[in-house]
Amino acid sequence: MKTTLSLLLAAAFSLSSMPAHAVKWDLSTMTCKQFLDSGEDNIAVVLTWMDGWYKGDEDNAIIDTEVFIDNAKKFGAYCGKNPTVSVVTAADEILGK
């Protein structure tokens, strides 16, 4: 579990080495296990996307790193305990949309 949380935290701040090829993900069908096994870069992208998606228009262009990291920890813990749940279902549960 600590490894998963550490991976999520490290990934959240390592967006600098993104792949050069285009990839499409259907997050409604991606399981938590697939997410956790997808690698640091992919985890960082998904966490960043979820942060913006669930904020909507209410927070403008503000990233609160304390909230972001707290949500990443919660998301990692939830996914670790529920590996067959979709990433979107997990996000709805954690971020409450």
Automatic annotation (TrEMBL):
Q: Which residues cross the membrane?
A: none
Signal sequence extent: 1-22
Name this protein carries in UniProt: Acid stress chaperone HdeB
InterPro entries given in the database record: HdeA/HdeB_sf, HNS-dep_expression_A/B
**Organism expressing this protein natively:** Bradyrhizobium nitroreducens
- Which Pfam families does the record cross-reference, listed alphabetically? HdeA
List keywords of the entry alphabetically: Chaperone, Periplasm, Signal
